[in-house]
Structures are given as C-alpha cells and as structure tokens.
What we know:
mainly alpha; 3 domains; 9 helices; elongated
Amino acid sequence: xxxxxxxxxxxxxxxxxxxxxxxxxxxxxxxxxxxxxxxxxxxxxxxxxxxxxxxxxxxxxxxxxxxxxxxxxxxxxxxxxxxxxxxxxxxxxxxxxxxxxxxxxxxxxxxxxxxxxxxxxxxxxxxxxxxxxxxxxxxxxxxxxxxxxxxxxxxxxxxxxxxxxxxxxxxxxxxxxxxxxxxxxxxxxxxxxxxxxxxxxxxxxxxxxxxxxxxxxxxxxxxxxxxxxxxxxxxxxxxxxxxxxxxxxxxxxxxxxxxxxxx
Length: 263
C-alpha cells in the first residue's frame, strides 16, 4: 500500500476513534451535566417558592404584631387614667390622714390641759380615764365610719366610671349619639363642623347647629337642635341622672309638652 493510502487509512481510523470518544464519553458527560443543572434549577425554584411563602407568613405576622401593639397602647392609656385616679384618691387619703392627725394632736392638747388643771388627783384621774375610754370608743366609731365612707366612695367611683362609660365610644371619646335627637349621620355632620365633645356641643349656639343641619340638606333641616346644648351641658358636667331625666321628657330632641303644644 502506498504512503497516501496509509495516510487515508490513518485519517479514517483517527476520525473513527474521535467519533467513538465523542459518542461514548463527551455526550454522556454533557447529558449528565444537563441533568444535574436541571435538578439544581428545580431545587432553586422550590427554594424561591418557599421563600415567597415565608415572606407571606412574615407579613401576616408583622400585621398581627402591629395589631397587638395598638391594643397594648390602648391598654396603657387606660392604665394611665386609672393611675391618675388612684393618685387623686391617694391625695384625698393623705388629706384625711392629716386632718385625723390634727384631731389627735388637739385631743392630746386637751387631755394635757385637763391633766395640768386637775386639783383632785383621784377624781380627775378617774375622769380622765373615763374620758379616754369615751374618746377611744369615739375613735373606734370614727375609724369604722371612715372605713364605711371609703368603701362607699370606692363603690361610688366604680359606679360613676361604669355609668360614664355608657356615654363614650369604644375609643373613649364623647358619644354625641346619646343626645336625644342626634343619630349617626347628624353626629358625622357635627364632627365635620368641629364639634367632637359634649363641652363643645354645650357651647355651640343653636343657630350654628341649625346652619350645619340646613347646609346638609332638607332632610337634616327637619331636626330640632334646641335642647342639644342643654343635654350636652349635663353630660359634660357628669350629671347623668339629670340628663336621663331630661331625656325622658324629650322626643326627637323636643320636649313632649312643647311638641304637643306645637301640634
């Protein structure tokens, strides 16, 4: 065989070896690497979905924490009001204690004067002992009366707070809707006009209230605001008994007697 034939034969053998190497090794290696990349991409997709679910749960958790913080702030404000009330009560008790101490000093001074002015030691001592017994009995009665007064004051304060809460909104603001003749829509009109508290409503002229109603439309212009400041004044002063009594005399904010006379 000539040299050219051997060259052609060698080229064919080399090409065959390269073909077999590519088919048997490199293609399998590429396919394996492609499968590995696909598995990694699937794992990354699962991880991304898990991350998205985790973000959703974290946002829900943050919203819940924010809601609890607002609730805690409301409770903290209520505790501060209770602490202020307790501080006022403590001040009253300190004043009572000071008055009681002054009474004790006065009694001690009187007993000292009685003792110094005694001429008959035996009779005066007996008189002093008798007076001391009477004073002790009176002191016990005073202590018992102070305890009764303190208990009644505590009950009264508790009842007053409970009664006052009936005239407040859930947020602790003055509820204008408890005023006879004021409904939710009219309350919104008053709020828009800058009237939010009982004190502000008590100081509002009736003409101003009529103007607010007339501006809102003919349906609201039919309301009768003549007694609203009077009712609000009782609520602002905390005279809830007088307010309820007045409210029983009203229909739609108008006194029943006036309504009958007008009809």
